[in-house]
């Protein structure tokens, strides 16, 4: 589905992504893990067109999409969420969702003035859809709240909710789980699996929660220092010495100091 | 009875430093008339000030409209800058039929503006000044000069009129460069002027504005040391500000060898303002003309007295100087003609503007003085 | 206070102000203020579209207003006799050549591979183009400016009804906005602001110095009007009879009549634009714009073409300012380029938008009318303030004279004071966005 | 029972003029202890932390530090009293370098803090590498490390952390928890909100479950971990 | 010899005035940039703050001269400067306390503060005119020139003169010192860093124990000092006039922005960019070329790229071009 070849992105002299090459298979839920600063988010940003690559190539279903602007990629069915939530803070939660779908006829001025009947119909449908998503995210009571006033986790939920408003082909999730309650995260995981099964979405998921990754992802790609360090099933990755050293670690050293009751 | 006259001048904005003296000049004339008790059977004359801002046509129009409709003035002394003067004339004076005498709007364009016979000015059109400057320069043997002008209708109009005249008379204008008033720095202009060269720099600007800035920079860099100063540039502040640095500089501004100007200066001194300040005499004269015309018409209504402005300003009749308004009113009451000369030797021509008598000045020992008349 | 009653209440208050002005200072004064107030409201609407809807910090309002004014001259004045023959074609061809030079340079930049050759070609095109342009253009200018310079000296206009200049002013401004938007809209906040300010200054510089176009600083006066002249009415016996029948003095009546006619024209334009802005704001388009204003990165990721939307709204807002500019020049009856000052035409409009309530169309309209009313009325207020303050002082004391002398300057001080008071009690504007 | 070192006692309050978010919520921590707050998103955990730190109005209830009523002190005065806080969001100075961020953490300290800084760099080696880079240019997890490092620089008497491990990799999370335990054992009480609840509860001496601004469950970390109801509803089974 | 003459002409009409004007703008821009950097708004009242400080200094200068105190070859105003600074400090602190503080605690959007500062500008406008009037005031005394054009010609025997004014020298030196001090202060001192922290994230600054009131006070006091110094030096070099000080605002803003808002280095660079683009692009090269080129090639025409009418247009055009390549100014400024 997506092939990344030899991608390099430098900031000043620093090579945040340093010749990464990877394939994301159609219909998979690929996990992307790696130490902080490995270049995962940067990789996402380059694929999603937020950043221009220094060199390298990205193709989507054979088509070269390197350096296309984000809105163009969105129209090709490529969606992403942000690690640091990017909500539309002065708009309500519902508006945050309703603005997502492309091709709304009310988004041209002409229709805003002279096609008001059509807009009203579309809006009603959109509104119903948004309410569905809101219900799924368990934030019904916040429909009319300004998104800026949400709690940290709720903002992350909203991020996810936006991807559910349209029919995407591939969705990049950047740490949707960070700051989200684990019980809810399980529900989110279920939804991802369902979207993957029922609507055939492809997912790429950055996450530091191994349980979550384990439940969802196959294959898992581990990045480090801007390059792909290892790739395989989670079990394989977990057994990889390098990955343990750089990323997983060996657990608490101060276990003994924890009070036992 | 109380006759109200609007004094519409730019009390704020780029001319804010000369307008107080102008207003004081006009109000001096009004006080004189009120005191005499001879206008329209003892009418008092009060001034209603309004801010023309000099640059904001809309605000000026609104202010003028207000003094007309709200304060009920029956004539306007003003406005100062040609731009707002045109706007007030078209949007307030003509619709309301109010006489307007400007002491200082000198743009040649106003000569041909439609005015229903309501508009006059005690300042000459700049077309005339171009001739004067040419004559003075050539009499002194200067044939190669640079010009800088303030970038408005006054400066540009004057510079154009002068250049046309001067070149027709065989002179060369090496450069004619605009400067904007109120700006921070004039090095660029002076640089260009210096590069073009010339024996004299003609500064068609305002003494309180960029004009002085250009002179300062030109003197400091040694680009020019002789200047020609037209009307907007002559003011006693030059003595304090430049003094001996300007020795040899010359110029001319409206005025005659009639004793009016000197009289006015003394009167102004008594009233606590500077009678040599630019356009202050013209302002006194503008106000005086309005009141004398009213007396002549026996009415303070513009429609009645607009046709008498010429009568009182020009021959025939007894010559009237500043401070003699009471005498003029007496004469008019007695049915006699007056010829108002005033502080600036008023002589109205053609479309109702000053004929343009000029006095030539020259700097010597750090002060300027009048050396002749044209 | 509940916004639903707040807005009508405030508009009611403005109406009371206007009526009060009419009663105290005369209806002519009140209507004059109202008319400029309506025009200001339109400008504020344009700025609000850009800032309130899309967060574009445009402080080049003055430039667009001036272009509108230029349209009024170019549409309504008669062509100067002999000007076209003397140099009009040189100018047109010169301008075309100049435009082609720029296009050529841009094409070279786009089409050629990066490198020294590209730079050299571009430079060569620009330099050669510049000289050719000057060679064709300058003689035309000289010839035109030589035609009776003290009253014309410019190319003149098309001698069409001045009303036509309102849409044309909008188009002219839109065209300029397109060029500016294409180059500068990538800039953020204050950087965009200073760029737009710069462009406005450039537009004014052109207007001031290209005498062939609209006489430069020599001003064009006596423009045509869409409504009758007062004098004509005063000389029209039926009108006079009717005025007298109504118990009015014909002079006053004629003034009121023409001003009312203007008010009606302006109000129609304002209402149409207000309706359009309001519909746009409440539609999905408006929602998209707010999203873009809130967070551009996210809006991009959600498939919105931020650049195109910015350009669109920049053009629209500027066009509205252009329309207002043409209307204002029509009302003034003259074009005086020297009077275009940023303080008056840009910052004052911004004050209107912010005090009214940015992001809210009704707020902008309210701010436009209210602030203009203040701008005119602070003058007598400032004087009154000084008189009150100094009344306690000994008559003729130095301080008192000083205060009365400075009264004219209290105009701005009063303005500032009132602004601060309003913003203190409703910091997000009088009718805030939601 | 003696009074805990820091206690937010039956706090009720909300943001500005909005509705109350907290309803009689109590959280407390003893010297040398780690207290962990867990709960669903939007339960009011962050709000409770901010209330303890004086960043919003508490309509009723009190906050006491070491027996002293500090309910009416400004946040800044609380800092001077020795409280340190890492908020959940915007918790770094993005335009300043990493090192300057840490220096700002030590702002109220007048002594030489270079050794503390060295400790922070030991704990988060990546920060040492990036110390002259603007913090806003860091990756999500690196920012989180800066935020915690900044709070550690204060050498506080009590440390409050709002989701310190959100977005950090497992290895760093372990190190962070190790360090938190060490710090706590030196006698500094630590009050922390966590969504990585299971790991957090393992090291917690005391734990609170907040739901809709109210205390739903309270106990030791182990007790709550063992409670099936808590596990199912809040810890993801 | 001719080449030297050409250089002297260039120095006299382009380089020296450009440097001096640039330094004048830079000093003003430093104040603007500081407010933007720390308090995050464009302060429209800055021009009038400068005017106020200068007005007070002028009054002080007059008093000193009346008392017979002068400063030798240097302008007496420099002795009165501290008085002006002190008064301006009081004024801006008072303004902050009565006006800006309210919006800061409310966390109002920057643009509201901009408009509020316009209100303050109007008020200061009135105050300044009330205190000192509207006229042009010349308060420079002491030795006006370091080198006069005539003196230079006589001393060197060259055909061309070079004039350097005392105030020009002082301004350039003061501007550079002020910039260096400010740079050092913001980046190296504790208070300076806390000011930057405050501007970056106010809430977090609070959590770090930074006293916001103190930060704000220090900012305003520095701004008052910078504004007064800038105003006085400008007034000494040209002359004092309330209206001109208001007009100075635009080029000052342009300088601060093109240099990069919030950056002291940028303010200096911006000042010179604006000044030199005004002075050079419209310069007529006739005289310079006349010296350099052989006699028969010497130009008749002015050899001027653009007439001086377009001097502002050109300097703004350059500004825009700079911004197109460096969207947040030469030194990576902030944007809110
Ligand atoms: N704008 C920037 N300028 C300079 N360096 C940057 C910039 N953005 C990211 N980096 C650096 O690039 C590296 C990769 O960052 P990235 O955000 O991609 O990491 P990540 O893998 O997503 O980490 P995390 O798990 O912490 O989110 C980091 O070391 C970061 O400091
Ligand atoms: N600034 C604010 N203004 C108004 N309401 C707010 C604000 N911040 C948060 N809220 C509301 O308060 C409630 C509690 O928020 P809080 O941030 O305390 O949740 P939390 O328990 O920390 O959740 P999370 O785990 O998602 O961070 C939420 O419903 C949220 O919408
Ligand atoms: C007051 C005057 C200096 C005005 C000038 N003569 C003009 O016409 O604009
Ligand atoms: Mg990341
Ligand atoms: Mg939280």
UniProtKB/TrEMBL annotation, chain A:
Q: Which domain of life is it from?
A: Bacteria
- Any single GO CC term annotated in Swiss-Prot or TrEMBL for this entry: plasma membrane
Q: Which UniProt keywords apply?
A: ATP-binding, Nucleotide-binding, Transport
Family annotation (Pfam families): ABC_tran (PF00005), BCA_ABC_TP_C (PF12399)
Q: Supply the SMART domains for this chain.
A: AAA (SM00382)
Keyword check for Electron transport: no
Q: What is this protein called?
A: Branched-chain amino acid ABC transporter, ATP-binding protein
From TrEMBL, chain C:
Subcellular location(s) per record: Cell membrane
Secretion signal span: none
Instruction: Identify the GO cellular component terms for this protein.
Output: plasma membrane
Query: What membrane topology does this protein have?
Result: Multi-pass membrane protein
Pfam hit, one: BPD_transp_2
Q: What CDD domains would the database entry show?
A: TM_PBP1_LivM_like
The transmembrane residues are 7-24, 30-49, 56-75, 87-108, 120-137, 157-179, 191-207, 260-281, 310-328, 348-376
Q: Which InterPro entries match?
A: ABC_transp_permease (IPR001851), LivM-like (IPR043428)
Query: Which Gene Ontology molecular-function terms are recorded?
Result: branched-chain amino acid transmembrane transporter activity
Kindly state which keywords UniProt assigns to this record, in alphabetical order.
Cell membrane, Membrane, Transmembrane, Transmembrane helix
Q: Report if keyword Membrane is assigned.
A: yes
Establish whether keyword Cell membrane is in the entry: yes
Q: According to the lineage, what is the superkingdom? A: Bacteria
Please report the name of this protein according to its UniProt entry: Branched-chain amino acid ABC transporter, permease protein
Instruction: Record the organism.
Output: Yoonia vestfoldensis SKA53
Lineage of origin? Bacteria, Pseudomonadati, Pseudomonadota, Alphaproteobacteria, Rhodobacterales
TrEMBL record, chain D:
One annotated GO molecular function is: ATP hydrolysis activity
Where in the numbering of this chain does the ABC transporter domain appear?
5-237
**Could you tell me which InterPro entries the record lists for this protein?**
AAA+_ATPase, ABC_transporter-like_ATP-bd, BCAA_Transport_ATP-bd_LivF, P-loop_NTPase
GO biological process per UniProt? L-amino acid transport
User: Per the record's keyword annotation, is tRNA processing included, yes or no?
Assistant: no
Concerning CDD domains, the annotation shows:
ABC_TM1139_LivF_branched
Keywords attached to this entry: Amino-acid transport, ATP-binding, Nucleotide-binding, Transport
User: To which protein family does this belong?
Assistant: Belongs to the ABC transporter superfamily.
> What's the protein here called?
Branched-chain amino acid ABC transporter, ATP-binding protein
Q: Which organism is it from?
A: Yoonia vestfoldensis SKA53
Automatic annotation (TrEMBL), chain E:
Q: Name one GO biological process term.
A: D-alanine transmembrane transport
Offer an example of a GO molecular function term for this protein: L-phenylalanine transmembrane transporter activity
The UniProt keywords, alphabetically, are:
Amino-acid transport, Cell inner membrane, Cell membrane, Membrane, Transmembrane, Transmembrane helix, Transport
Q: TM spans, by residue?
A: 6-39, 51-71, 77-99, 111-132, 162-186, 214-236, 305-325
CDD domains annotated for this entry? TM_PBP1_LivH_like (cd06582)
Localization terms from the record: Cell membrane
Q: Which GO terms describe its cellular component?
A: plasma membrane
Q: Name one Pfam family in it.
A: BPD_transp_2
**Membrane topology listed for this record:** Multi-pass membrane protein
* Chief location: membrane
InterPro entries annotated for this entry?
A: ABC_transp_permease (IPR001851), BCAA_transport_permease (IPR052157)
Q: What is this protein called?
A: ABC branched-chain amino acid transporter family, inner membrane subunit
């Amino acid at each position: 589905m997506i092939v990344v070849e030899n991608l390099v992105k430098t900031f000043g002299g620093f090579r945040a992504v340093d010749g990464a090459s990877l394939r994301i298979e159609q219909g998979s839920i690929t996990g992307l893990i790696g130490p902080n600063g490995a270049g995962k988010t940067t990789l996402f940003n380059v694929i999603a067109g937020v950043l221009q690559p220094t060199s390298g190539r990205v193709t989507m279903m054979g088509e070269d999409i390197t350096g296309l602007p984000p809105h163009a990629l969105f129209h090709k069915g490529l969606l992403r969420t942000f690690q640091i939530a990017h909500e539309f803070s002065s708009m309500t939660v519902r508006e945050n969702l309703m603005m997502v779908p492309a091709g709304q006829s009310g988004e041209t001025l002409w229709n805003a003035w002279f096609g008001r009947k059509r807009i009203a119909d579309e809006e009603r449908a959109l509104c119903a859809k948004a309410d569905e998503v809101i219900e799924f995210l368990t934030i019904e009571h916040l429909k009319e709240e300004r998104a800026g006033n949400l709690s940290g986790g709720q903002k992350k939920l909203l991020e996810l909710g936006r991807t559910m408003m349209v029919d995407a082909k591939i969705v990049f999730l950047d740490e949707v789980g960070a700051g989200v309650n684990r019980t809810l995260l399980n529900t989110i995981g279920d939804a991802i699996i369902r979207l993957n099964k029922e609507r055939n979405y492809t997912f790429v998921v950055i996450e530091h929660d191994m349980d979550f990754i384990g439940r969802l992802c196959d294959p898992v790609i581990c990045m480090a220092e801007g390059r792909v360090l290892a790739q395989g099933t989670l079990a394989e990755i977990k057994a990889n010495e390098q990955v343990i050293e750089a990323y997983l670690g060996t657990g608490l050293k101060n276990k003994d100091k924890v009070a036992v009751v | 009875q109380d006759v109200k006259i609007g004094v519409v001048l730019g009390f704020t904005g780029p001319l804010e430093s000369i307008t107080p003296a102008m207003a004081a000049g006009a109000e001096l004339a009004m006080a004189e008339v009120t005191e005499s008790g001879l206008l329209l059977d003892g009418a008092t004359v009060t001034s209603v000030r309004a801010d023309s801002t000099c640059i904001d046509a809309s605000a000026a129009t609104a202010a003028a409209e207000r003094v007309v409709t709200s304060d009920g003035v029956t004539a306007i002394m003003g406005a100062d800058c040609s731009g707002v003067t045109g706007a007030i004339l078209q949007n307030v004076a003509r619709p309301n039929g109010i006489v307007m005498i400007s002491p200082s709007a000198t743009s040649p364009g106003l000569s041909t503006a439609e005015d229903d016979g309501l508009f006059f000015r005690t300042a000459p059109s700049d077309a005339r000044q171009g001739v004067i400057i040419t004559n003075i320069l050539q009499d002194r043997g200067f044939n190669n000069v640079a010009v800088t002008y303030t970038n408005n209708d006054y400066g540009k109009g004057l510079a154009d009129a002068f250049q046309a005249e001067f070149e027709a008379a065989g002179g060369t204008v090496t450069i004619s460069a605009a400067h904007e008033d109120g700006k921070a720095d004039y090095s660029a202009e002076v640089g260009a002027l210096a590069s073009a060269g010339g024996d004299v720099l003609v500064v068609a600007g305002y003494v309180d504005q960029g004009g002085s800035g250009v002179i300062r920079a030109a003197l400091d860099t040694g680009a020019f040391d002789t200047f020609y100063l037209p009307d907007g540039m002559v003011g006693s502040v030059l003595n304090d500000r430049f003094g001996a640095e300007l020795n040899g500089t010359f110029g001319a501004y409206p005025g005659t060898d009639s004793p009016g100007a000197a009289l006015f200066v003394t009167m102004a001194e008594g009233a606590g303002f500077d009678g040599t300040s630019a356009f202050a005499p013209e302002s006194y004269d503008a106000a005086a003309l309005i009141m004398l015309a009213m007396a002549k018409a026996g009415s303070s209504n513009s429609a009645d007295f607009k046709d008498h402005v010429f009568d009182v300003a020009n021959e025939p009749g007894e010559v009237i100087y500043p401070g003699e308004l009471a005498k003029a009113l007496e004469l008019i009451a007695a049915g006699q003609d007056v010829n108002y000369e005033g502080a600036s030797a008023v002589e109205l021509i053609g479309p109702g503007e000053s004929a343009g008598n000029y006095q030539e000045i020259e700097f010597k020992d750090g002060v300027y003085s009048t050396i002749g008349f044209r | 206070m509940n916004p639903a009653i707040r807005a009508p209440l405030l508009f009611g208050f403005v109406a009371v102000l206007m009526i009060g002005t009419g009663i105290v200072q005369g209806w002519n004064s009140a209507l004059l203020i109202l008319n400029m107030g309506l025009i200001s409201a339109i400008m504020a609407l344009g700025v609000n579209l850009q800032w309130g809807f899309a967060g574009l910090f445009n402080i080049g309002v003055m430039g667009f207003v001036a272009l509108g004014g230029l349209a009024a001259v170019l549409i309504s004045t008669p062509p100067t006799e002999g000007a076209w023959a003397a140099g009009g074609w040189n100018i047109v061809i010169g301008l075309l050549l100049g435009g082609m030079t720029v296009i050529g340079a841009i094409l070279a930049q786009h089409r050629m591979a990066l490198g020294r050759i590209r730079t050299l070609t571009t430079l060569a095109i620009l330099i050669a183009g510049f000289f050719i342009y000057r060679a064709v253009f300058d003689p035309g200018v000289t010839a035109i400016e030589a035609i009776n310079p003290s009253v014309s000296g410019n190319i003149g206009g098309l001698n069409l009804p001045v009303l036509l200049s309102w849409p044309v002013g909008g188009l002219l401004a839109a065209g300029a906005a397109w060029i500016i938007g294409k180059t500068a809209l990538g800039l953020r906040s204050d950087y965009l602001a200073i760029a737009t300010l710069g462009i406005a200054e450039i537009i004014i510089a052109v207007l001031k110095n290209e005498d062939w176009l609209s006489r430069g600083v020599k001003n064009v006066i006596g423009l045509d009007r869409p409504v009758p002249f007062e004098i004509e009415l005063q000389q029209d016996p039926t009108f006079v009879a009717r005025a007298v029948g109504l118990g009015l003095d014909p002079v006053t009546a004629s003034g009121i009549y023409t001003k009312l006619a203007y008010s009606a024209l302006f109000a129609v334009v304002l209402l149409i634009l207000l309706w359009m802005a309001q519909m746009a704001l409440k539609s999905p388009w408006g929602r998209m714009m707010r999203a873009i204003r809130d967070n551009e990165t996210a809006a991009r990721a959600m498939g919105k073409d931020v650049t195109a939307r910015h350009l669109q709204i920049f053009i629209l807002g500027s066009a509205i300012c252009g329309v207002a500019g043409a209307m204002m020049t029509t009302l003034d009856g003259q074009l005086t380029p020297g009077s275009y000052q940023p303080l008056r035409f840009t910052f004052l409009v911004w004050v209107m938008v912010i005090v009214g309530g940015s992001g809210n169309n009704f707020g902008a309209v309210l701010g436009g009318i209210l602030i203009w009313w203040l701008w005119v009325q602070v003058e007598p207020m400032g004087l009154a303030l000084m008189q009150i303050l100094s009344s306690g002082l000994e008559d003729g004391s130095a301080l008192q004279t000083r205060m009365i002398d400075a009264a004219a300057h209290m105009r701005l001080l009063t303005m500032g004071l009132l602004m601060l008071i309003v913003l203190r009690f409703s910091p997000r504007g009088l009718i805030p966005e939601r | 029972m003696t009074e805990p070192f820091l206690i937010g006692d039956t706090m009720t309050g909300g943001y500005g003029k909005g509705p109350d978010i907290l309803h009689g919520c109590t959280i407390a921590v003893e010297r040398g202890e780690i207290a962990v707050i867990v709960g669903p998103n939007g339960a009011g955990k962050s709000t409770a932390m901010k209330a303890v730190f004086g960043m919003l109005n508490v309509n009723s209830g009190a906050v006491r530090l070491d027996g002293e009523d500090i309910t009416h002190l400004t946040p800044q005065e609380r800092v001077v009293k020795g409280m340190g806080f890492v908020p959940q969001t915007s918790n770094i100075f993005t335009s300043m370098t990493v090192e300057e961020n840490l220096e700002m953490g030590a702002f109220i300290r007048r002594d030489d803090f270079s050794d503390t800084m060295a400790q922070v760099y030991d704990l988060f080696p990546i920060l040492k590498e990036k110390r002259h880079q603007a913090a806003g240019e860091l990756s999500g997890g690196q920012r989180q490390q800066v935020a915690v490092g900044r709070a550690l620089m204060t050498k506080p008497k009590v440390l409050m952390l709002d989701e310190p491990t959100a977005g950090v990799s497992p290895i760093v999370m372990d190190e962070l928890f190790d360090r938190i335990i060490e710090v706590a054992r030196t006698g500094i009480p630590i009050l922390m909100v966590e969504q990585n609840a299971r790991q957090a509860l393992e090291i917690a001496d005391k734990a609170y479950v907040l739901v809709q601004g109210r205390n739903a469950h309270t106990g030791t970390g182990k007790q709550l971990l063992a409670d099936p109801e808590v596990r199912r509803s809040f810890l993801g089974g | 010899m001719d080449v030297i003459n050409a250089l002297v002409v260039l120095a006299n009409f382009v380089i020296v005035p450009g440097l001096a004007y640039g330094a004048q703008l830079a000093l003003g821009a430093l104040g603007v940039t500081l407010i933007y950097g720390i308090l995050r708004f464009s302060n429209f009242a800055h021009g009038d703050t400068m005017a106020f400080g200068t007005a007070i200094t002028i009054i002080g200068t007059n008093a000193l001269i009346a008392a017979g105190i002068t400063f030798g070859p240097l302008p007496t105003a420099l002795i009165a400067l501290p008085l002006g600074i002190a008064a301006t400090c009081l004024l801006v602190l008072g303004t902050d306390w009565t006006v800006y503080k309210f919006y800061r605690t409310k966390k109002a959007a920057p643009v509201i503060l901009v408009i509020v500062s316009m209100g303050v500008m109007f008020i200061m406008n009135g105050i300044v005119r009330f205190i000192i009037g509207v006229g042009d005031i010349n308060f420079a005394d002491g030795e006006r020139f370091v080198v006069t054009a005539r003196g230079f010609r006589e001393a060197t025997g060259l055909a061309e003169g070079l004039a350097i004014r005392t105030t020009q020298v002082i301004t350039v030196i003061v501007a550079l010192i002020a910039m260096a001090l400010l740079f050092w202060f913001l980046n190296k001192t504790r208070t300076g860093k806390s000011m930057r922290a405050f501007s970056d994230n106010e809430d977090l600054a609070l959590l770090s124990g930074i006293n916001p009131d103190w930060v704000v006070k220090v900012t305003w006091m520095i701004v008052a000092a910078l504004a007064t110094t800038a105003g006085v030096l400008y007034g000494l070099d040209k002359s004092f006039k309330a209206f001109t000080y208001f007009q100075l605002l635009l080029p000052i803003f342009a300088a601060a922005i093109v240099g990069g808002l919030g950056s002291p280095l940028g303010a200096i660079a911006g000042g010179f960019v604006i000044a030199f683009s005004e002075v050079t692009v419209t310069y007529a090269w006739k005289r310079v070329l006349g010296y350099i080129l052989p006699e028969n090639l010497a130009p008749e025409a002015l050899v001027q790229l653009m007439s001086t009418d377009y001097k502002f247009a050109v300097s703004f055009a350059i500004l825009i071009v700079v911004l197109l390549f460096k969207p947040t100014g030469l030194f990576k400024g902030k944007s809110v």
